[in-house]
Request: fold
Amino acid sequence: MRIKRGFDYRIIFTAIYIAVAGYCFALGLKPAGATRHENISAYIGIPSIGLMSSVESLSLQDNRLITPDVVAGSFARENSSRTFLVGHSTTVFSELKNLVIGDVIVYNGIPYRVDSTEVVEKSTINMNKLVRGDLDADKTLAIMTCAGELYENGDASHRLIVIATEISL
Reply:
């Protein structure tokens, strides 16, 4: 069998990954950490960096999102096409820095393709825009974790932000 030049094997790998994850979910098998959290709303898988994690649904508390310790957290505004995911760079998103444009992310059984990765200074981030996204755009994920200099209080000077758009296989 001859495969066309330039064929993207990531799509086939992701389709297999989705099928296996769906089968495991149907059997009731969940990633480590899933039973320790009450608000599990979804799962995220990123085959290229070996990530599979539960995702805890987050809500604003004093106008802030509290990041879960070992799993990802998700937040979506009403009538928004964007889901915002957050997690610690020392736990769940420790390998996020290794993503490249074109990598596939599977969130809640839906595949997304990485459009951009960017490290930005924390003080320059417009969280409202990041969480909201473009209201008329395709469905997107915005994933954020700490980057840059880590401080003793657990914070960091920068944030790694990944934007991914829903794709169809």
